[in-house]
Amino acid sequence: MRTDIEIAREAELRTIETIAAKLGISDEYLEHYGKFKGKVNLSINREKLKDHNNGKLILVSGITPTPAGEGKTTTTIGLSDAMALLGHKTTACIREPSLGPCFGMKGGGAGGGFSQVIPMEDINLHFNGDFHAITSAHNLLAASLDNHLHHGNKLNIDHRRIVWNRVLDLNDRALRQVVVGLGGPSNSIPRQDTFSITAASEIMAIFCLSNDINDLRKNIASIIVAYNHDGEPITAADLNVEGAMTALLKDAINPNLAQTLEGNPVFIHGGPFANIAHGCNSIAATKLALKLADYTITEAGFGSDLGAEKFFDIKCRKANLTPNAVVLVATLQSLKSHGGVPLDKIREENVDAVSEGTENLKKHIENIHQFGLPVVVAINQFTHDTEQEISMVKEKCDYLGVDVVICSHWRDGGKGAIDLAKAVVDLSENHKTDFNFLYPDDMSLWNKMKTIATSMYGANNIMANKDVRTEIKRLEDQGFGQLPVCMAKTPASLSTDPRLKGRPTGFDVPIREVRLSSGAGFIVALTGDVITMPGLPKTPAAENIDVDDKGLIQGLS
């Protein structure tokens, strides 16, 4: 089998005008970034699409991730291609890859095999400059804050209560804790600071939860960067830089348009963490796609307990979106991993381990049903999967009333997901949807956290010390109790212990800290030590990446 980059390089690229025309986007609204990439100006919404009805919205989620792999992005792309083969006007909406994982351990985020988006190298490396714009806007606010301290501190900012850090779109553990302002009075006030990766920036979350540039500017203005000596919040508007930050993002806010290997349109826009943020592509891209296509296929990071829950309770709540159906992705390898099989034995038939691991899949199905949505299970097939193992999954899930569809889109492209596409059409057209949020806006923050932990994770309860409970009460007293909650926990388990696979029971969820993301409009509840600046592995993927004498990138995956 050829590598992903070899497959991508051999594909026939259509011009971006050809891809845009499939969605009825005229050149008037298409901004060219070379021959094969572009952006769609959001002015098309008010000038051409205002009276268009929305198409169907399909979410691709998954089971609890394992090192054995599941393939949500690959399935999103394969399903989109399959829907197009069935004659449906379809587009996919996915997140932009971060440079951190590309050069680190995970690799790129453009799908794989014969279900990829292209040009793969461009999408994985820099793309259309959105991440750089977000990084610059974030760091402009950080620089303005320190500059204000240096020039007299008229806002009476308490430098011990600064809550805005700096970001970089690379994995660099050495920058997790730093000291800035060293070198004398001309270099501002010495203080401790931190760096996060750009995907963890609140600017990234705001970017993906804003409808347009005006909404973006308003949300940026409300970012809280610090508190003064009286305990009052200091915002980006107080520093008078929200306009300059918005100017840096004026082009980035327009959704990016690319294509699949089979020449179907894909919007790739925004890339927030699926842990400390909500892990979905931008509202702007999703809403645009819904106006332009009959079916929009999108995905959310990690499993249903994190990505899908946040997609529903944060993104859909803020954007007034109503999904029509959900695809849950699994592999027999990942189910065996949840059943206790080590990675070096994962390719061997083990029906008992599949049976045990399917308990994790069943919990994720139940999670989706709690939102009143129909669901289909997509088994991303490997050549070593056996009929006995597949039959076990179907047997174990039968009482939940869901179809289990075997897919081979990684190997066969869109035609390998035809059965899945037919199942999705049936679910979205013929099955009743009674979509509801997990909790109402007016529920207390504590009960919102408890509802998520007990309903989505299967926990008995939540717990927190006095300081955390006091902070929760303070946030409610300040008027932030109506906000949704973004739970930050390990993606490797339904519990907060990454070692617990399958379907853990009998555990409580510790709330160790709560943070306000006032610009993004949610409360982050940290259930453990969340690292927002990843480190590189012992042998990072960057060591395998090079450029040959013809200028072609090698080793990117």
Q: How are the elements arranged and paired?
A:
Layout: H1 4-10, H2 16-22, E1 30-32, E2 38-40, H3 43-47, E3 56-62, H4 72-85, E4 90-94, H5 99-103, E5 111-112, E6 115-118, H6 120-124, H7 130-150, E7 157-162, E8 166-168, E9 178-180, E10 191-193, E11 195-197, H8 202-208, H9 213-221, E12 224-228, E13 233-235, H10 242-248, E14 256-260, E15 265-268, H11 283-292, E16 295-299, H12 304-319, E17 325-330, H13 332-338, H14 351-369, E18 375-380, H15 387-397, E19 404-407, H16 409-412, H17 418-430, H18 445-457, E20 461-463, H19 466-477, E21 485-488, E22 508-510, E23 513-517, E24 522-526, E25 546-547, E26 553-554
Parallel strand pairs: 3-16, 3-17, 4-15, 4-16, 8-11, 17-18, 18-19, 20-22, 21-24
Antiparallel strand pairs: 1-2, 2-14, 5-6, 6-14, 7-12, 9-10, 12-13, 14-15, 23-24, 25-26
Helix pairs in contact: 4-17, 7-8, 7-10, 9-10, 12-14, 13-14, 14-15
